[in-house]
DNA sequence: CGCGTGCTTGAACATTATCAAACAGTGTGG
DNA sequence: CCACACTGTTTGATAATGTTCAAGCACGCG
C-alpha cells in the first residue's frame, strides 16, 4: 500500500523519464529476497535506454490475454495480479507481481495471460523487440534472464505442489509466510506484519479455494492466536513457528 | 513404450557417441508439437560437442533434489517424471518428460526436484558449465533456451489453472488430450491412440487426485464410450469432441 | 502355480464448495 | 453530518465432490 500511495491515480499515464533497471522504489522497504532485483550494472544501463515508466490505477489491465505481445514489463511500485481464466469464468491467479518482478515474457505472438493492477501500480515498459536485441547482443543479460526464468519456473512448481497436494489451511499458511517474506513492510516487527494489497477473492483464486474458505481459515488462525487481523487486509504473524508447521513446507 | 524397448536394460550406462541435438529418436513416431525439438543447426552442433548419451532403467533416479546441479539433460527416448515431495511424503509430479524435453535447469547450486525414469530412458547429458558457456557465447542458443523457458512457464501456468480450478473429470480429460497430442504413437488413428508410460499413481500425482479417483473416472469415460481401454495403459480416444468439451480448455 | 504389484470397485467419511444472509467499512449524496 | 448504498468480509447451514479405508481382481513374472 505504501507503494500505491506514491503513485498517481491516473491510469496509463506515460512518463519518458528513464527508468533505473535495478533500483527498488524509494517507498519500498527493501527488495524482495525471494525474487532478487538484479543490481545496477551494465545490463541495467542497457535496459534503461529502452524503458518507459507507466502508471496504472487499481483495477486497470496492463496486458490482456490474446493481445499482441509487444512489450515486457518490470514492476517498480504497487502490486498486480497475473490471471488465467477458464471459458466459464473460473479464475486462477498464477502470480502476484510486486516491485522487482518482471512480466509479459512469452514465446508466442500473443500474451497468454492477463495482468491487472490490484493497487495503483508503477511499471517500466520495454519494447519486446528492444529486449530481444538486448538478449542477443548481451550475453550477461541473456544469462541473467535465463536464470530469472529458472527461478520463476521453480516457484511455479512449488505452487503445483501446493495446489495439487496441500490442504486449505496448509495453503493459506504457506501463502502468509511467502507474503511476509516478500513484502515485509515493517522491519521492526521482524517481517511479521503484512499489508495485503489483494482482497479475499484474489487470495482464493491464488490458492485454488473459495472466498468463504479463505475467510473461515483466517478467522481460525486468529482464534488460535497464530495471527492477528487488525484490519481485513493487515495480517500480523504472532506465532511464526506454528505457521511454518502448518504450512508443511520443506523450505 | 516403443522407445523404452529400444533402450538397454542396464542403468547409468554411458556411451560416448556424440548426441545429435535436434534429432528425435528413430523409434519415436514424430517429435512432439507441443514442445518442438529445435531443428539441427549451429546451436545443435555446439551442444553435440559437450553431450554424453546415457541410459537409465525404469525406476532409476536421474537427478535428485538436494544434489549438486552439475548437469542439464535432454530426453532422447523413453519417459521420465519430475517430482516434488512434501515432508510427509505427499507427491506431486510437476511434469512428464518425453523425447525432446530438456530438464535439470536451475539457478541454485542444487537441484530443486527429482527426476526418475518411468520407462527405460535415454537422455543426453550436458555439463552445466559447458551449457552456460554455450549460453554466454552463443546469442542464438541463449534466445532459443530463453524461449523454451517461456514455454515451460506457460505450460506450468496452465497446470496451475488445472489444479486450482478444474474438477477431477476435467483434469483427466485435459491430461488425455495433452498426452494424445504429445505422444501420438499411432498416426493411423489420427493421434487418438495413447500408450501411457506411467501408472495410475503417477497420473494421480500429476493431476492432484488419488489413484482411486483416476481409476473410477477412466472407467466412467469408458462406460460413456468416450474412450476405450484395450489394456490398462492403452487409451484410445473415441469421441475427441466430447473429451474436449469435458476438459474445459480454452485452447 | 503362486506371489506381487498395480488396477478396479464399493461403502463410509471428510473437506471444502455452495447457497444464503448478516455485517463492516467506505464513499456518496442529500 | 448523517443516511444510504455498495463492495467486500464474515458466518451459518447444507450439499457435493473426492478421499479414505477395505477388499477383490487381473496381469506378469519367477
User: In terms of quaternary structure, what is this?
Assistant: homodimer
Structural class of chain A: alpha+beta
| Total DSSP helices of chain A | 8
Rg result of chain A: 18 Å
Structure characterization notes:
The structure is a homodimer of 251-residue chains. With 251 residues, chain A is an alpha+beta fold. The longest helix of chain A is centred in the middle third of the chain and has 27 residues, at 139-165. In chain A, the strands form 2 sheets. In chain A, strands 1, 2, 3, 4, 5, 6 and 7 form a 7-stranded antiparallel sheet that branches. Chain A has helices at 2-6, 42-50, 128-137, 139-165, 168-182, 200-207, 211-223, 240-247; strands at 13-15, 51-56, 61-63, 71-85, 91-97, 102-103, 114-127, 193-195, 227-231, 234-237. At the A-B interface, strand 4, strand 5, helix 3 and helix 4 of A face strand 4, strand 5, helix 3 and helix 4 of B. The first copy, chain A, binds a DNA duplex (30 and 30 nucleotides) through helix 7.
Short recap of the structure:
2 copies of one chain form a homodimer. The first copy, chain A, is α+β, with helices and mostly antiparallel strands and 251 residues long.
Topology:
The structure is a homodimer of 251-residue chains.
Chain A: H1 2-6, E1 13-15, H2 42-50, E2 51-56, E3 61-63, E4 71-85, E5 91-97, E6 102-103, E7 114-127, H3 128-137, H4 139-165, H5 168-182, E8 193-195, H6 200-207, H7 211-223, E9 227-231, E10 234-237, H8 240-247
Antiparallel strand pairs in A: 1-2, 2-7, 3-7, 4-5, 4-6, 4-7, 8-10, 9-10
Helix pairs in contact in A: 3-4, 5-8, 6-7
Chain A binds a DNA duplex (30 and 30 nucleotides) through α7.
